[in-house]
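Re: beginner question about structure tokens

> Can someone show what the tokenized structure looks like for a real chain? I only ever see the sequence side.

Sure, here's an example I had lying around. Input first:
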Amino acid sequence: MPTFRCAAVLFDVDGVLVDSTGSVGRQWRIWAALRGIDEEKVIAIAHGVRAVEVVRTVAPHLDAEAEVRELEKRETGDRDAIAVMPGAIDLVRSIPEGQWCVVTSGSREIATERLRLAGIPIPKVMITAEDVIHGKPHPEPYLKGADLLGVDPKECLVIEDAPAGIRSSHAGGMKVIALTSTYAAAALAEADAVVAKLSQIHVTLTGTRNLLINIL
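And the corresponding structure tokens:
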């Protein structure tokens, strides 16, 4: 397995730090059924991208912003099956404050609530759906995360679970470790490394703002 040197680690939230796949899928299926849209068509693109872009893709005739507001109300209230991803707390605590952040396609309210429910410390830097014009797979979300951390994108390592996030990271010049929590390894082949568990990722501080990432 490869070894990575970086100055900061950028985490996706859903499927990486927080196990929320069941909740996300459930709410998208409910929405699709209410709108008479093929559920599988929605689920196929719903993970890893902003909700507004999913709606615009599968239902361009609807008011995407209004649909997302209603969807997010239901998601915020859906706390069933929300849990911390195994190894997530130990991993983020092994990284010095100010050298990690979260970059999510979800809203700030949902991301904050899910991190809180999972017991994950809320980082100072959070990039959410409201903070960008272009969502993943565009590089803007991860580039903005790097900028707010004050780190060169080439010195950032991303941990993702979805193809859209991998492409977003690579487009921004960052290396990516993919976690097989949402997609099979074959679908994540574009990543620089693929792991089954966060506990396989080990962080060592080798100097001021210098991190050595080993995959066990």
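Each token stands for a local structural state, so reading them left to right follows the chain. The chain is about 40% helix and 20% strand.
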